[in-house]
Design brief:
By secondary structure, the chain is mostly helical. 67% of the residues lie in helices and 6% in strands. It is elongated.
Length: 417
């Protein structure tokens, strides 16, 4: 047991001290700090900005006033300014930066409003869309007046219908609860997806690196390959737990200190204000089990290669499994009750993501959760048993690694060990 802790601590510290780990941790912390201060940053850059001035040449002498009223109501960062003079002179002022754009207004042969928008670049589609929408409203107004349609009646016709959604199942979630769940599940799925691939790759690369440097020969002479395998898995798990704990701790501290400021916006959209604690509990459970499942696979696949350069090739099947689970879960965010999603949630390689998504989006029976967890745990135990045998033989294999057929060779070597 002492050898197990020695290998575990060595794995943890060697990875903890690497530049890549420290840089990735600092960059992620910077991102968290930025997100926690997103409203302050947004206010800093946009709070004191002046409205963009858009020059308007109105050849009709009637369209400017209604267009100005409508556009500035929709977008207070736009200011329409009527100008006189030639079109070329106005374009020169746009080029010089005096105006953000130029709009020329006129009527076509049928008396319908038309416009041409000029700007140095046409990438700022927000202004263009607002102007276009308001011209469309003016066109409708003109057309209905010419047709003799009462404006009050037109307003009634265009007003949205009342459409209320009521769930007959008393346990079903409301629209607000679903939106909150969708946001937090989305975040957790991304975290699980990135973590499984990142830490799984760390395990495989560690094993391959030790084999290529012949350190493995010394390690397996002092500790059994199985002890070495699980020490690596748990060592990287603790590393990941430490990193995620830092992120969560810093994020929680920042959000707590700004809880009065961080209302609405991105935090409301992602459900960070009112989320059931059970969602976080299930997130931790499925995160740990998902890690153990894929970490065992990563250690097994890493033991089959002799060079670090070959790790990516052997990890591809595992990465594909994680990607498939992620894409199904993304589809399930909009259709969590579909039969395909339900069946997929019981497939152990997909369970950590898809069952967690279903728990967040639906009120599913306890027996389904228990069954999926049972299948997942049994699969982890089976995979750990098989993986330990492959690892025992794989660490003794050197030379060029061809394909997954090397698993058979590794199993044969494990019986001789």
């Amino acid at each position: 047991m002492n050898k197990f802790w020695i290998i575990l601590s060595h794995t943890f510290m060697s990875r903890f001290k690497t530049k890549s780990f420290l840089i990735s941790t600092l960059l992620t912390l910077a991102l968290i700090v930025g997100l926690a201060n997103i409203q302050t940053i947004n206010d800093t850059f946009s709070g004191e900005d002046e409205a963009d001035k858009i020059a308007v040449i109105d050849e009709t002498n009637t369209l400017f006033t209604p267009l100005k009223q409508g556009t500035e109501q929709m977008n207070d960062m736009m200011e329409l300014v009527q100008v006189t003079g030639t079109e070329e002179a106005a374009k020169d002022k746009v080029k010089d930066g005096e105006y953000a754009g130029l709009v020329t207004l006129s009527y076509n042969n049928d008396g319908i409003p038309q416009a041409v928008y000029y700007a140095n670049t046409i990438t700022q589609s927000g202004h263009q869309s607002v102007i276009q929408q308001q011209l469309q409203q003016i066109k409708v107004t003109i057309a209905t007046q010419e047709a003799g349609i009462d404006q009050a009646a037109l307003v009634d016709i265009q007003s949205p219908v009342s459409f209320e959604k009521v769930a007959l199942d008393e346990t079903a979630k409301t629209d607000e609860e679903l939106n909150q769940a969708r946001g937090i599940v989305y975040i957790m799925l991304f975290l699980l997806y990135i973590s499984v691939i990142t830490y799984g790759m760390m395990i495989a690369q560690d094993v391959a690196n030790e084999k290529s440097s012949r350190v493995m020969e010394l390690l397996i002479s002092s500790a059994s390959p199985v002890t070495h395998m699980f020490a690596k898995i748990i060592g990287i798990a603790l590393l990941g737990l430490a990193q995620v704990s830092i992120f969560v701790g810093v994020g929680y501290a920042l959000i707590s200190s700004k809880k009065d400021e961080l209302t609405g916006g991105i935090f409301e959209f992602f459900g960070l204000q009112d989320t059931s604690p059970s969602v976080y509990i299930y997130a931790v459970v499925f995160f740990i089990l998902g890690y153990l499942l894929y970490a065992t696979m990563a250690a097994m696949l890493g033991s089959l290669v002799s060079r670090v350069e070959e790790v990516q090739q052997f990890m591809t099947p595992m990465v594909f499994l994680v990607m498939i689970a992620f894409f199904i879960a993304m589809f399930g965010l909009d259709s969590p009750q579909s039969t395909f999603v339900t069946i997929s949630s019981f497939i152990p390689f997909f369970t950590p993501m898809i069952m967690f998504m279903r728990i967040g989006m639906l009120d599913i029976p306890t027996w389904e959760i228990a069954l999926s967890l049972g299948i997942l745990i049994v699969t982890i135990l089976i995979l750990a048993t098989i993986g330990a045998r492959i690892y025992r033989g794989g660490v003794l294999m050197y030379g060029k690694s061809g394909s997954l057929k090397d698993i058979k060779k590794a199993l044969a070597l494990s019986k001789k060990d």
